[in-house]
Amino acid sequence: MGLLTQGKPLSWEETKKYAEYVRKHGILQFIAIYRKLKDRQDQYLRWGDEVEYMIVKLDHSNQKAKLALKAEEILKIMNEREEREGDKRASLWRPEFAAYMVEGTPGSPFGAANDHTAVLSHFNCVEDSMRTRRLEVEQLLAKDESLLCLTSFPRLGCPDFSVPRLVPDPENSGTGSLFFPDGAIFGGHPRFKLTLAQNIRKRRGRKVIINIPIYRDVNTKDPFLEHFNDEEAEDSARADHIYMDAMGFGMGCCCLQVTFQASNIQEARILYDQLTPLCPILMALSAASPIHRGYISDRDCRWSVISQSVDDRTKEELGEEPLKSCKYRINKSRYDSIDSYISEEGAKYNDIQLVYNEEYYKQMVDAGIDTLLAKHVAHLFIRDPITLYREKLDQDDEHETDHFENIQSTNWQTMRFKPPPPQSSIGWRVEFRPMEVQFTEFENAAFVVFIVLLTRVILTYRLNFLIPISKVDENMQEAQKRDAVSRCRYWFRKDIITHTSPPEAAACVEATGCPSESNICNSNLDESCILMSVNEIINGKGNHFPGLVPLLRQYLTSVEIDAATHCTVQQYLNLIANRACGNLMTTAAWIRKYVTGHEQYKKDSKVTDKINYDLIKTVNSIVKGETVCKELVGDSPFTKARILRQQK
Ligand code: ADP
Ligand code: MG
Ligand code: MG
């Protein structure tokens, strides 16, 4: 979750006073990085994933599954180990928003610094790296505790959801939540995360409001409307929605992210753009969070929950009141899909109004930054900093970047364009952020490898996936819906070969059984962008679109890759292909089926403690390799073997 800074966070009142100061210096810092590093070249691909986990306790005697607030204890041990082991460390562990969450990344990024072929063979290391991470933490857990990749914990915010047991204190707590106690927020660094939550609330002038449509079952109350004995909640909760009121409901969800280093700034900008249309598609495919605060929702993904949970816009910025003390109407939360493409090719697809700070924009353009990139940064910089440390105020703008990072890392968007950190040899990177996390290492590795491989194909064949950015936004809304893989359709580009594509690209498309002429980029936007299902996008649509998996398989025949890696990657692609066509279920669909099929489910959309316990116990046995869940991963012996390795 961005950079960690030591010290004591300032109050909101003080932070607000310094907002303009932070932005000003942030822009100077960005200009300095740009000037110094705009020509940095990195020959080889480097990349790494981030997996977030929840620490769960199974209370067998009471048949309850709870979240164990132990992250701090575990991270203390992990961080000591990291310091001792230095470069030899197998993994890195970082705090996340909640006291029951940890984030694990590989000890160092995949991809070799000096060898092209090793890049591909690293596809065969991801899953083991993830497995090692899990085992490292599991060794520190009690017998009835587990480390699980759950995107949303079904009973988060229900009474008694944590150990130790905490009771929310709406009157005296920082977030004022009726459901999510401050103690469930990660402690560490003098309550850094609590300050974040508190300041979002203070900036907005009221508590955050999260409403997610309820899944209507035959016995669900009609209308579904809870009563909270709290004025703010009564006003905020919408009929037929699950109401939540704290940052923890969103930032307390887990996800799966991938960061790639591009060979230079141009390539990073291309990847940032080209992967943008993939965000909703991969979100729908990885959907894993159908339940919130003990109720089944009509959404399968976490995205809008988080987006609402950190929405710090004031009524003026939201357009509910005329602009007086605020500067802009802002059409999205800080946590949302991106608003503009940043590569040259992307510019013509920027069709939504971009709110940006004109003064910073001009300053950056005057400093030699092109208009597209300057607008992107000036857009991020419409936000206020939400936490700040007195110790970090005074910065050397030529050599430090904390003020830039402050704003950058609290713009939580589907994609992130990351400049090189100061004093490092790291290059220009791009982060892919929309995916939900899957139960097993096999599945998480499949999603990560799929995306990394796709970047190789995009760059090698110079493909073009761009569609108007307003259509990506439409897709984001569709992608979160219940069973969005099977029930929704998405705008997607069908003609993806460009005039700069090498002949191999056309050959590759033809080898998938799709005529390459119809896949040459059409300058008519309306014709190039059509509605397709996830299945058609991933597996192909007759002679209209070759499909991403067939393209990747074809690409793999043209590169040097060792047999073992090849075999593993094929299994990953099988998983993605089968999820897309419905042969396998998404994690969200599987969770729904489990809950609604539970003998104690009363068809009232409620997920009781007992249902939750049985669900989490089953997930735990899947993760431990005691059960292979055919509906999620199929039943090939290869897959089974890989999942079973988890226990070793
Ligand atoms: P965040 O900005 O999300 O906090 P981190 O800096 O923690 O991201 O790293 C995210 C991922 O980037 C990790 O998987 C890490 O291995 C990977 N990574 C680190 N250095 C590089 C690099 N030079 N190029 C590509 N990925 C890198
Ligand atoms: Mg994280
Ligand atoms: Mg990240």
From TrEMBL:
GO cellular component: glutamate-cysteine ligase complex
Superkingdom of this protein's organism: Eukaryota
Root EC class: ligase
Signal peptide: none
Enzyme Commission number(s) from the entry: 6.3.2.2
One example of a Gene Ontology biological process annotation: glutathione biosynthetic process
Annotated GO MF terms: ATP binding; glutamate-cysteine ligase activity
Name used for this protein in its record: Glutamate--cysteine ligase
Organism: Leptotrombidium deliense
